[in-house]
Amino acid sequence: MKDKKLLAYRKNDGLGDWIMAMSVLKMVNLQYPNIDIHVHAENTNIGFSIKEQKGDNHRQIRFLNGVYDIIDNMDVELTRVLHAEPSEYDYYTKHMIYFEFQGEWHEQYPEVPKDYVKNHLIHGMVKKFNEETKLNLKYDENVLARYKNIVPFGGQKPYVVMPSCGRNDRKIKDTKDWGIVNYKELARRLKEHYYIVQIGSDDQPIIKDADQVIFDQSFSEVLGVMKEAEFYVGEINGLVHLAGHHAIKTYAIYCGGKEHPDFTGYKNQIPIMENNASVDTVYFKIIEDNKKNAE
Prior knowledge:
Rossmann fold; 9 helices; three-stranded parallel beta sheet; alpha/beta; 295 residues; 33% helix; 16% strand; four-stranded parallel beta sheet
């Protein structure tokens, strides 16, 4: 029987952050097997409009279900709790995010300054975890949380996967938004070479050149689609972190802001950021890379 208890608490502030947090807790399983982990996901309205905060909004419910999907189905030994009192636990950690760099990157993405520690964000989470719990968890880049049951995809093969970008009612462009216009143009060009599967949610635009559209599936099913693809291409978000945790070949598009492959990249990913990740840059990188691999 485990003799210590840890409460890991997080706001609902990003599915990619939740996926990385699961890797930290998997390290706890391995290095502190006597600790019983409880996870509490705060159900907040952060990131939603005033209109969306009223009542049982479809997007809020879908997002929270996505968080629960991650907590309940990744290969981490834990218990999800709906209510928790930190004082009842031996160890307590809050949001776990710790940025080991500061500032925005310029549009053309210069080299990360030499005096910056180029550690993955998961490493920063471990550092924050240790600060809050007073434990001595060791970061291990080879420990990545993965889904326990991935549903095989029975669709046409070979194929490639891409998302649509944003929601139909989206008004602003952020640093993780490559733009639906770019995705549509990339799909139009890639269609000459590949069968295209689009994944996402039903509040996202449909790409007309996609050969198949798969919306609102569990991550276990989404992973089945992504793992059997020739590759996945998309901007830095939760799906790119999901792909990174499962060694899926990915062309990761960097749109600006604080994202940089030195901090957010994975071994099976090809980062694209030159020329502000234009459609030309992304398309020719994919074609040239796959032509080289075929030779």
